[in-house]
Amino acid sequence: MSKTDYDKKWLNNQLSEEESKSFEKTEEYHFLVKLDDAIQHFKAPDFDLAKEETKLNNKLSQNTARVVNWPVKLISIAASVLVVVGAWLTFFNGDKASPTTVSSADQSSLYLPDSSFVLLNKQTALTYGDWGDSREVHLKGEAFFEVVKGSTFNVVTPLGVVSVVGTKFNVEVWDDFFAVSCYEGTVNVVTEDIEIQLNRDQTWQSFDGFKQSGQNTLGKVPDWQIGESQFESIPLKYVLKEFERQYQVLIRTKDVNLEQRFTGAFTHDNINLALKSISLPLNLSYQLEEKQVQITGNH
C-alpha cells in the first residue's frame, strides 16, 4: 500500500488493526498525529482564505522536498483544512519564522504551537519565536499558563526565568515587581540572585529588593480570572498601578504614603466600589472624574 493510501485510510479511520500497528511505526504517522492535535487545539484568527492560499502555495514552492510532499498530499485529501495547514507550517516546519507577539489591551487567550494554553491579563505582551526543539516565551505583564508535558518550557521575563515541564502557574512582572504562583506541578524560578522551586499552592514575590514566599490561598485559579485583584502586604504603589491597568485610569495622589502595605482586594467591574475597597482601610479619600482619580490622605 502506498503512503497516500495509508494517509487516506488513516484519515477516514479505515485501517485494519494490523495496518494501524504498521503505520504507527512510521514517521508519517507521527507527522499526521501532530498535525491533527494542532488542528484540534488551534484557535484561528480572522483569515483571508484567498490570501492565505496564495501565501501557502508560495511557501510550498520554495520549501524542501519533504515539506512540499506531505502538505500537498494533505491538501488534496482534506482541502477544508487549508488555512489551518498554513498556520501549522509556520509553527512546525524547519524554516525560521519571525517572532510572534501577542499584545493584550484586555484579557485574551491563545494556544501556543505545542498546544499549551495561555491566558493574558490586561496590558500584557507575550512573544515567541521559532519553536524548534525548545519551548520559550518572553513575557511582559501577567499571564496564566497551562503547559502540556514535553521538553522544558521557559517563561523569560526582564526580572527572571520561570521553568517548567508540564504544570499550571501564574507569572506577574511589572517594572520591579515579580510574582509567581504554582497551581499544579512544580515551577523553578531563577533570577540574578536567587533560585527557588515552587510546588503546588506555593507562591513567591519580589519587589523593592524584598523577597517573600508563602502559600497560595487565592483559590484554584488566579484572582484576576474571576474579576478581582487581591493583595497580601503589598506596597500601595503596586496596588494603585494594578488599579490603573484594570480600569485604564490615571491616579494622582496627595499626602499619601505609597510605601505603606495593603492587604485586601478590589473588584474589576465597579470602579467606585473598588476605590472604596482601597481607600477606607487606609483612611484615604478619593475623587473620580472621568478617567482620572485623585486620592488624598486624611490627617
Give a short summary of the structure:
The chain has 299 residues and is of the alpha+beta class.
Description:
- Residues 38-53 and 59-95 have low confidence and may be disordered.
- The strands form 3 sheets. Strands 1, 2, 3, 4, 5, 6, 7, 8, 9, 10, 11, 12 and 13 form a 13-stranded mixed beta sheet that branches.
- The protein is of the alpha+beta class.
- It has helices spanning 3-11, 17-23, 27-41, 49-62, 65-77, 82-92, 236-247, 271-279, and strands spanning 100-104, 108-111, 117-120, 124-128, 135-146, 153-157, 160-164, 168-174, 177-184, 186-190, 195-199, 202-207, 210-215, 228-235, 250-254, 261-267, 284-289, 292-297.
- A hairpin with a 2-residue loop joins strand 17 (284-289) and strand 18 (292-297).
- Helices cover 30% and strands 36% of the residues.
- It is built from 8 helices and 18 strands.
**Beta fraction:** 35-45%
Cα gyration radius (Å): 24 Å
Average pLDDT confidence is 77
| Content-based structural category | alpha+beta
What composes the largest sheet? 13 strands, mixed
Overall strand count: 18
Task: State the shape.
Answer: elongated
Termini separation (Å)?
87 Å
Order of helices and strands: HHHHHHEEEEEEEEEEEEEEHEEHEE
Helical residues, percent:
25-40%
Low-confidence stretches: 38-53, 59-95
In DSSP terms (H or I, runs of 4 or more residues), the helix count works out at: 8
